Amino acid sequence: MEHSFPVTRIYSDINGDTHFEELGIELNDAGKIGALSDPLVAKSIIFREVVEDYDYEFHNAPQRQFIMLLDGEIEIETSLGVKRIFSPGQVLLVEDVTGKGHRSRNLTKAKRKSVFITI
Questions:
Q1: So what's the pLDDT on residue 2?
Q2: What residues contact 92, with CB distance under 8 A and at least 6 apart?
Q3: What is the domain count for the chain?
Q4: Fewer beta carbons under 10 A from the terminal one: N or C of the chain?
Q5: What CATH number does the domain containing 53 carry?
């Protein structure tokens, strides 16, 4: 049972433009407990809650990090105007620490929770 765990990467190219890329973290059969990835090294875990009208203009990620969405829906826009909607259970790998950045905003009028895992 080999397959991968889907992750959407947000990164900047050499011109500073931000893009989405679909990745898969390889999972290996671990028997009765399911499928596991190889361990990844993390620096810290940050829990976050944002207000109902969260709408953060273009910005860079403060550091390379995974973001795990726990509830609500968020729209992320790249510097090239490409917009994608992300829902609970989806995982982002945010690596646009330089360049033109991305914009993010809540789509539901409710507080939204997420977990950041810095790498």
A1: 57
A2: 7, 8, 9, 10, 66, 67, 69, 76, 86
A3: 1
A4: N
A5: 2.60.120.10
Strand partners, 18: 12
CA pair distance 29, 46, nearest whole angstrom: 29
Residues 6+ apart with CB under 8 A from 33: none
The model's pLDDT over 47-96, given as tens digits with 9 standing for 90+, comes to 999 999 999 999 999 999 999 999 999 999 999 999 999 999 999 999 99
For the chain, where are the E strands, in sequence order?
A: 3-12, 18-29, 35-36, 44-50, 55-59, 65-69, 74-77, 83-86, 91-94, 102-106, 112-118
- In 3-state terms, what secondary structure has residue 31? helix
| Residue span of the structural domain in which 76 resides | 3-118
Cβ atoms within 10 A of the Cβ of 40, count? 9
Whether residue 88 contacts residue 115, with contact meaning beta carbons closer than 8 Å, is answered with no
**Predicted pLDDT at 1:** 45
- For 62, the enclosing helix (H) or strand (E) is none
Owner of token pair 């992750």: 7
